[in-house]
Amino acid sequence: MAALGWLTPRRRSATARSVLAGEASAEAARKSSQEATASEVPETSSTEPEFPVLGDEKAAAFFDLDNTVMQGAALFHFGRGLYKRKFFETRDLAKFAWQQAWFRLAGVEDPEHMQDARDSALSIVKGHRVSELMSIGEEIYDEYMAERIWPGTRALAQAHLDAGQKVWLVTAAPVEIAQVIARRLGLTGALGTVAESVDGVYTGKLVGEPLHGPAKAEAVRALASAEGLDLSRCAAYSDSHNDIPMLSLVGHPYAINPDTKLRKHARRLDWRLRDYRTGRKAAKVGIPAAAGVGAVAGGTAAAIALHRRRR
Question: How far apart are CA 174 and CA 76, in angstroms?
Fold first, then answer.
């Protein structure tokens, strides 16, 4: 299910595994969207045309999750719920928090650390039922996530829904968690990292690779093709420069609560920006205070400890 490794960049260009991960995520999103139900609106420049366009069935919107739709990382909030349920101990958290803190500060990934985290994450779900993850996710959404949705971003998503367009979350988080959040927000569905399952039981393998960076763009491309969408009429929203491949696919890219690199890129290309964080510090740092190194680390450590406790 969960892993810090899923949230960290691995490549800058699409690979065969990226394409496979994107196509698998698009297929999972289309299957789950049938379960979904169809604040304050941010100010816009008077020179901007009316958007989204009412009744444009060839258009849709794609929203990154962490720090774009929701404050912090979904996996961290999930980890908080597991900690509350005494699924792991502090010593389990420390190891993986250190690995991710090292990566965030150094700016490069240690292959040994990342492989360890990735292997541990896959072993977490092996033998467990998909329905179990969904059930836990429902409870934890109510406890920790619902109050952390950015009203401004939620209003943007609602504008697309009101215009008759589909709205999808696109995240490196496990697709099951993403689907819970999308359903609770009334969105169409979610694209997320897909763990292989047979007869509703996880095998401990990924389909392709984590849905991150180029893989996100491939997922959006695959879904748009299957849905008959015109990407030049679609919109995408993200806080991270890692999502530039996805943002570059669409005709209406938005930088939401952007990190430093994305803010510079967006300004250079005249992309629209929205920042719903408070305070100058939050607007300047690459990782918003609402997330933090410890926040990002929490989800993986919690999930790894969950696996150990339940074996």
Answer: 12
